[in-house]
Automatic annotation (TrEMBL):
<comment type="similarity">
    <text>Belongs to the major facilitator superfamily. EmrB family.</text>
</comment>
<feature type="transmembrane region" description="Helical">
    <location>
        <begin position="51"/>
        <end position="71"/>
    </location>
</feature>
<feature type="domain" description="Major facilitator superfamily (MFS) profile">
    <location>
        <begin position="17"/>
        <end position="495"/>
    </location>
</feature>
<protein>
    <submittedName>
        <fullName>MFS transporter</fullName>
    </submittedName>
</protein>
<feature type="transmembrane region" description="Helical">
    <location>
        <begin position="172"/>
        <end position="192"/>
    </location>
</feature>
<feature type="transmembrane region" description="Helical">
    <location>
        <begin position="108"/>
        <end position="129"/>
    </location>
</feature>
<keyword id="KW-0813">Transport</keyword>
<feature type="transmembrane region" description="Helical">
    <location>
        <begin position="204"/>
        <end position="222"/>
    </location>
</feature>
<keyword id="KW-1003">Cell membrane</keyword>
<keyword id="KW-1133">Transmembrane helix</keyword>
<feature type="transmembrane region" description="Helical">
    <location>
        <begin position="83"/>
        <end position="102"/>
    </location>
</feature>
<feature type="transmembrane region" description="Helical">
    <location>
        <begin position="410"/>
        <end position="432"/>
    </location>
</feature>
<keyword id="KW-0046">Antibiotic resistance</keyword>
<feature type="transmembrane region" description="Helical">
    <location>
        <begin position="366"/>
        <end position="389"/>
    </location>
</feature>
<dbReference type="InterPro" id="IPR004638">
    <property type="entry name" value="EmrB-like"/>
</dbReference>
<feature type="transmembrane region" description="Helical">
    <location>
        <begin position="471"/>
        <end position="488"/>
    </location>
</feature>
<dbReference type="Pfam" id="PF07690">
    <property type="entry name" value="MFS_1"/>
</dbReference>
Length: 500
């Protein structure tokens, strides 16, 4: 049986543990978006079309979201240190496999291996922190650093990916993980404490239904806008997701040791901050995709320049997350979480002021606003949810909140993408003759089409894209503002409200 060393860690040792966990987390978060800037180069290098490239991104989302809950449970049962080391090794091996891939199927397989590692790794980092940092205030501050690294990894993805691809080719976007992963693995072997395992019973029926149900849900969200919501495969996956996830909820309410405490999410203590995680990912991931298209295809920026434009958001995310940890330790999660949601909503709405001739000096102020908002949300969400459960179930709680965030990001790209596409198509059909409108109406799903359209048509498609993007940004901002109101009206205040 593992010996519990968490409470015996000295302050310097705790700092080393936090730094070690941040290395693995940063690598996993970075890979969420670093590949987006490499997709055109991958298409050229592997002779892959749009549908194939889509699966390079979608495979990661499918596997990662589907296995997060399983990863949390395995960490609680098998030992958090052991599962973390396995996860980091899998992610590093998957990264090397992606970099060496000579065909699209090999690349997709490597992405799946990365996702398995990330699904095991992400909940483990928070779970270990929950055990090592036992005091409420020090735990909030540690989660603040953890959240800053998580947010920085997400926002740095495009900034790192652009220059790497431009100078070293698409494989460099994956090779970068290998030395970091190997170094992080050696570091973890030396500094991570052996923590007590939780005698959690395995729940095979719950495992099977939630993995298949989440996979079906993510498939629907990703493929719905592409195939059409009435497509037989999409409709079948929708029905499957509803049935499987309903069965999962029923099973979890009946078993003695549930894989997920459904009642936890149904209450305001953890349920409201978990939904806030869904909402902020919904808005941010949608913005990340559409802003990259706007900068490159409407304003004509290079991939490197478009990626570097996100650096202001990165810096402010990291700083705000650390500050938010201190605030949560003093006054609870409610106020910083609501403030962060409002700031991200303001940032999204702010982009609706700018069009096809905008300059960075005009809209650049929005990126620090959004970065600050992200940093203020990441920390309170984790503090609130982890504070609502005993340390023994920290893996389950961490996996749950990360699963909700991941589904929120996929839903944001799908739903906001559908809003953008709908408004884009309507605008094109108003401005162009039917024959031309039909030829360019798919341009919003293909950046090359936006960039290569002839002069007069290009002006129309650019304006139509901005109309669609503005509608999508208003949609995301509205959800975030409504969530902020929900947080203020339902979560408790004060130090006792740190958990909600």
């Amino acid at each position: 049986m593992d010996a519990g060393l968490g409470g015996a860690c000295t302050a310097p040792r705790k700092g080393l543990v936090l730094g070690c966990l941040c290395v693995g987390l940063f690598m996993a978060m970075l890979d969420n978006l670093v590949v987006t800037t490499a997709l055109p180069a991958i298409g050229r290098g592997l002779n892959a079309g749009t549908a194939g490239l889509q699966w390079v991104v979608e495979t990661y989302s499918l596997v990662y979201a589907s296995l997060l809950l399983t990863g949390g449970t395995l960490g609680d049962r098998w030992g958090r240190r052991r599962v973390y080391l396995l996860a980091l090794a899998l992610f590093t091996a998957g990264s090397a496999g992606c970099a060496l891939a000579g065909s699209l199927p090999a690349l997709v397989a490597g992405r799946a291996c990365q996702a398995v590692g990330a699904a095991l790794l992400t909940p483990g980092t928070l779970s270990i922190l929950r055990h090592v940092f036992t005091g409420e205030r020090e735990r909030a501050q540690a989660i603040g650093v953890w959240s800053g690294v998580s947010g920085a990894g997400l926002t740095l993805g495009p900034a790192v990916g652009g220059p790497l691809v431009d100078h070293f080719g698409w494989a460099a976007a994956f090779w970068i993980n290998v030395p970091i992963g190997v170094g992080g693995l050696l570091f973890a072997v030396r500094v991570l404490p052996v923590l007590p395992r939780t005698p959690v019973r395995m729940d095979p029926a719950g495992q099977a239904t939630v993995v298949m149900g989440l996979a079906a849900l993510v498939y629907v969200l990703v493929e719905g806008p592409v195939r059409g919501w009435g497509d037989p495969l999409v409709l079948g996956a929708t029905a499957g997701a509803v049935v499987l996830l309903t069965v999962f909820v029923v099973l979890e309410l009946r078993v003695a040791e549930p894989m997920v405490d459904v009642r936890l999410l149904a209450g305001r203590t953890a349920g409201v901050p978990a939904f806030a995680g869904f909402a902020v990912s919904f808005g941010f991931f949608g913005l990340g995709v559409f802003l990259s298209m706007y900068l490159q295809y409407v304003l004509g920026w290079s991939p490197t320049a478009a990626g570097l434009a996100m650096l202001p958001a990165t810096a402010f995310t990291g700083a705000a997350a650390v500050v938010a940890g201190r605030i949560c330790g003093r006054v609870g999660s409610r106020l910083p979480l609501a403030a962060g949601l409002v700031l991200v909503a303001v940032g999204l709405a702010g982009f609706t002021r700018y069009g096809t001739g905008a300059r960075f000096v005009e809209f650049g102020w929005l990126l620090p606003v959004i970065g600050t908002g992200l940093g203020l949300t990441f920390t309170p969400i984790s503090v609130a949810v982890l504070g609502a459960v005993p340390a023994a179930r920290a893996g389950m709680a961490s996996a749950t909140v990360n699963m909700v965030r991941e589904v929120g990001g996929v839903a944001g790209v799908a739903v906001l993408g559908a809003v953008l596409t709908s408004r884009f198509t309507a605008s094109v059909h108003v401005a162009l003759p039917p024959s031309q409108a039909a030829a360019v109406s798919h341009a919003v799903t293909s950046g090359a089409a936006l960039a290569t359209a002839p002069g007069p048509v290009r002006a129309v498609t650019d304006r139509a894209f901005m109309t669609g993007m503005h509608a999508a940004m208003w949609t995301g901002a509205a959800l975030l503002a409504a969530t902020a109101a929900l947080v203020l009206s339902t979560m408790r205040g004060g130090r006792d409200g740190a958990a909600g």
